[in-house]
Amino acid sequence: MLVLSRKIGESITINDDIKITVVDIKGKTIRIGIAAPDNAKIYREEVFEKIKEENTSSATAEFDLSQVTQFVKDHIKS
Amino acid sequence: MSYPSTRFGEFEANQGNILTFTEGLSGFESESEYALLPFDPNLDSPLMWMHSLTRPDLAFVITNPYLYLPDYQLDLSDAEKRDIALGPNDVRKVYVIVRVPEDYRQMTANFLAPVVVNETRMICKQFVLTNPAYETRHFLLPEAVRS
User: Mean pLDDT score of chain B, rounded to an integer?
Assistant: First the structure.
């Protein structure tokens, strides 16, 4: 991994169209500004962990099929 | 062809209802083939099962997000469309994965990470949206029903 030191207000450019700027530093928190094309997908890393957890907990559900079916049928229109 | 299931004993699947993930679901990367099955064969339901063909114990409940959020915004980039080979003439179908807790009135679905299907080719992938309006646990039922 490439590691660079930057001060507040300094930037890093990736390819021709992505610019990452250190906006502010307060204690252990760094505020980062990202200028990128509209089609660039930018995520906080934790979101992937959250989705993995959600998939896992969805897959392990145990419930009474006919009860849930009837309940959903009564309350959600198909 | 029939496949084993810990929930149903066995189930039937064929080309018409088998979905292939181009990249396995997060947490289940090694499972790529699932069958789409009715939630309960005896009752009409907005829910469906997405049942693994290779793991008898692995099945997800899924549903159509537009039943709950008619304005659900889902704009795939060109790169994402390529992930499921989605061309202009292909039919796109969207599902969200449902989580059914013990108190099933509180069921939620993951609107942040929908499964988008190229129904023409029956291939799909779970995409992560960047729209902050959508959550991993979006209640499917109105508050009046939940409380």
Answer: 94
Of A12, A74, A51, the closest CA to residue B28 belongs to: A51
- Whether A65 and chain B come into contact, CB under 8 Å, resolves to yes
CA distance A36 to chain B (A): 14
Q: Rounded to an integer, what distance in angstroms lies between the CA atom of residue B116 and that of residue B97?
A: 11
The Cα–Cα gap between A23 and A30 comes to 8
A50 chain-B contacts, CB cut-off 8 A? 112, 136
- Closest Cα in chain B, distance from residue A28 (Å): 25
**pLDDT value at residue A72:** 82
Indicate which of A34, A45, A46, A54 best probes the interface with B, i.e. most B CBs within 10 Å of its own CB.
Answer: A54
Most confident range (mean pLDDT) of A23-32, A65-74, B136-145 is A23-32
Question: Which is more confidently placed, A22 or B15?
Answer: A22
Whole-complex ipTM: 0.92
Amino acid identity, position A6: R
Residues of chain B in contact with residue A57, where contact means CB-CB under 8 angstroms, are: 99
**What does A11-67 look like in DSSP terms, one character per residue?**
EEEETTTEEEEEEEEETTEEEEEEE--TT-----THHHHHHHHHHHHHHT----HHH
Instruction: Give the C-alpha separation, B17 to A31, whole Å.
Output: 47
What residues in A contact B112, CB-CB < 8 Å? 47, 50-51
